[in-house]
Amino acid sequence: MSHEITSEPGSVVSKPKSRLRKRTDEIADAIKLTMIQHGLEPGDRLPQEKELMAQYAASKGTVREALKSLEVQGLVRIRTGPGGGAFVERMSERRAMSLLGNYLFAKKVTIADIYALRKVLEPLVAVSAMRHIDDAGFRRLEDTIAIYDHEPNDAQERWDQRMAELDFHSVVAEYSDNALLAFQVRFLQRLLKDLAVCHDIYRQPQPVLRQRGIAFQRDLIDAMRAGDATKVNAIMAEHMALAEQQMLALEAEVANRFIEV
Amino acid sequence: MSHEITSEPGSVVSKPKSRLRKRTDEIADAIKLTMIQHGLEPGDRLPQEKELMAQYAASKGTVREALKSLEVQGLVRIRTGPGGGAFVERMSERRAMSLLGNYLFAKKVTIADIYALRKVLEPLVAVSAMRHIDDAGFRRLEDTIAIYDHEPNDAQERWDQRMAELDFHSVVAEYSDNALLAFQVRFLQRLLKDLAVCHDIYRQPQPVLRQRGIAFQRDLIDAMRAGDATKVNAIMAEHMALAEQQMLALEAEVANRFIEV
DNA sequence: AGATATTTGTTCGTATGTATT
DNA sequence: TAATACATACGAACAAATATC
C-alpha cells in the first residue's frame, strides 16, 4: 500500500553481456515484482516449483534458492503436500525484529541509547494508544499489572515480573494506530529483554522501583481512561526518566561487581 | 553437579521418526551458532561448501539453501573462485532498511505517522550529533545546502533538491553515536524518499518552504557550532513542525487534484 | 596478458517425506 | 488405508567466475 517492496542494490541496471547478478537473485526479484504487480495478498498462492521452473527456464535448485530467499525475507511461506506451494505472507513482527537485531548486533547499543529513545517514544505511543484502547485493553493492562503487584517469591518469579513490566508497555503500544511508532517502541522493549547486560540487571532485587512502577502504571491507566493526553504524556515521561535512572545505576553496580571479582 | 540433566515436563521428546524442522534451517542455525561461538568477525571465512556438506552430512543443494538464508539475512557474503566461500559480513544499513520496509509494506504508513516520529527524533539526533561533529562534518552540511540554495531550473533539479534536503538530515544523523537513533531517523528519511505519495508531493513547486528550510538549517549549523543544545533542539523541532504542516497540506492538495481528475 | 586451478553456480535425474483426499 | 500431489533432499556432472602464476 504505502511503498514498494524493495529490491537489493544492483537490481536496476542490466548489463546485457555479463550476468552481474546471480540467476537465483534475478528470479527472486522477478517473483517479488509479480507479487506487487498482481497485488497478491497474504494467503494467495504463487505458481508451484514446476511452473516456476518452466516460467524462468531454471532448474529446481535455482528456483528453490529463490523461494528460500523470499521465505527468509518473510514474503512467502512454503507448504508441502497437495495444494501446497509458496503462499504470500506478511512478515511477522517477530521476524522483523530478529532481522533488525542482526543489523544492530555489530553496533554497540547501550542502555542509555535505548532510553534516549524510550523517553520520547513511550509517552508518544501512550497518547496514541489512549485514543484507541477499549475496555478489553484496559483489562489486559490490569491483568498484566497483577503479575507483579506483589513481592516475588523466588528468582524466577522476579524475572517473570520484570518481563511482565515490559509487557505492560507492549500492550499499550498495541493500541496505537501508528505502526511505525508501535514497532519501534516494541523493538526497544525486546532489546531490553535480550541485552546481556539487562539480564544481569533484571536479576537484581529492586524493591523500590517495582512499587513506584506500579503507581505510575495505575496513574497512567486512570489518565488514559480520562482521556487526558497531557497527563498521560507527563506520567509516562516521568516513568521513563526514573526507569532510566534506575537502570543506569544498576548497570554501574553490576559492572563494579564484575570488576571486583 | 551430581544429578542428571532432566527434560522439562512439557519439553518435546524427540520423535526419532519425523524431523520437526527442515534440514536446511537446522544447518543455517547451526552455522549461525558456530559463527557466534567462534566469535567470527567480518571478513572471516566459513568452511567451504564441500566441508559443510561433510560436516553436516548434507547434499550440496541443502547446504547452499542454508547459506542462501544466511546471505539474505546479511550475515555472510559468498564469493567464487580460489579461496572463495562464505565470508562473515555485517548487514548494511541499506539491507536493514530494505528488510524493515518489507515488514511495513503491509501496514499503512502515513506522512503523519512519519512526522510524529521525526518531530521528536530529529531534534534528539541533532543534539547528539552536535557533540561529535567536526569541521569536515560541517563542510559536508554546507556542501549539501549548496545543492538547494537556489531556484531549481527544471523538474529534475527540483527533485534533486528535495532529496538533498533529506540528505542534510542524513548527514546530521551520521554524527550521532546512538546507532539505534541514527538508524531510526535515517529510515524515516528513506520512507519519505520512497513513499509513493511523497513522490507526488515532492514534484510540486514550493518556493516558500525551500527558503525557510535553508534558514533553519543555517541556524542549526550555527547553534551546533556554538554547542547550544537547547537551541539546536528548538530549531530542529520548529523545522520539523513546519515541514510536517507543509507536507500534510500538499498531501491534501495532491489528493484533491487526484479526485478532480 | 593469458592459462590454469579452485570454488561457487546451475542443471538434471531420482528418491523420500508429508499433507490432502 | 491407499492414492495423489506437492515440497524436500540427494548425487553426479557441467558451467561460470575469479585468484594466482
Overall description:
Two copies of one chain form a homodimer. By secondary structure, the first copy, chain A, is mostly helical. Chain A folds into two domains: 4-88, Arc Repressor Mutant, subunit A; 94-260, Up-down Bundle (Four Helix Bundle (Hemerythrin (Met), subunit A)). In chain A, 68% of the residues lie in helices and 3% in strands. Chain A has eleven helices and two strands; from the N terminus they run αααββαααααααα. Chain A has helices at 23-37, 49-56, 60-72, 93-106, 111-130, 135-147, 155-174, 179-194, 196-202, 207-226, 229-260; strands at residues 76-79, 85-88. A two-stranded antiparallel sheet of chain A has the order 1-2. In chain A, strand 1 and strand 2 form a beta hairpin. In chain A, helix 5 runs antiparallel to helix 8 and helix 5 runs antiparallel to helix 11 (229-260). The longest helix of chain A is centred in the last third of the chain and has 32 residues, at 229-260. The interface between A and B is large, with 50 and 51 residues. Chain A binds a DNA duplex (21 and 21 nucleotides) through helix 3.
